[in-house]
Amino acid sequence: MRHPGVYAISAVPTSWHQDVWAALLAIGPRATVSHETALRLLGLGDDLVPSRPLTFTIPHGGHARVAGAVVHQIDDLAPVDVGVVAMLPSSRPHRAVVEVAATVGRRQLGDIVDELLVTRRTSHEGIAACLARVIRPGKPGVMALGEVLDERGDGYVADASELERALFTALGSAGLPPPRRQVPLPGPGALDGLVDAAYDDAKVIIEADGRRWHTRIRDLKRDHQRDAEAARVGWQTLRFLYEEIMGDPGNVCAVIRDVCAVRMRSQELPASRRPTEGAEIGGVGEAIATASALSRQ
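User: That's the sequence. What structure does it adopt?
Assistant: Structure tokens below.
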């Protein structure tokens, strides 16, 4: 018996991989191989990550305790960040980097990122996008990983106007109307400032973020305050990184279109109030309606 309820055939030699399998089965069906053990499955050696203890992730409330394993309880592991490695559900390389940022030293983290980038197991953009999805004030390791990403970036970040031009060009190419630019921050007035762009009918704010990572992390609390201020009066804020706008503008536009469509449906606007062709800048309803009609043809 390897663990309570988990048995191995005695004729099969034990191995590290078998140990991982047994521990995963003992933890339960919601478990995922993560952190250092996920990186070991990807082929990183002892010089970068230890083989033990075995590391896994489950959602909060699992309370799994397995001998020889560290079980992290984390709720932000999204399906897009999980793959199958050696037949085991495991954090993808970009996600594993974000995970170990909280458990390894700064220099070791840099070495791990270098190895993954050089061997093309992941990309700078992939790590950055994953970090953006899970970042929150006080999350361990984010500052260290932000510094590592800044050091390994291409050294160039577009200024605000150039980044916004790239975003608006992508929106036009995707058939979306131009949003209103440099709009006063919606809200009850507790905070001042402008947002990069907005679709008024869907109440969606778009922010194009070209800051270096250490600056983004430093300003994280302020960004959350601004988003909350707008949310108080029914606006949703979508923030897109330089890496996303420049690297995958099609996905950025798809997200904006989908979110606007959902919000327009939830508002249940009567036909007389929906924007029509030639509606003023800042309206996205007509473009969404047209795209939906074309998709049904």
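The two ends are 59 Å apart (CA to CA).
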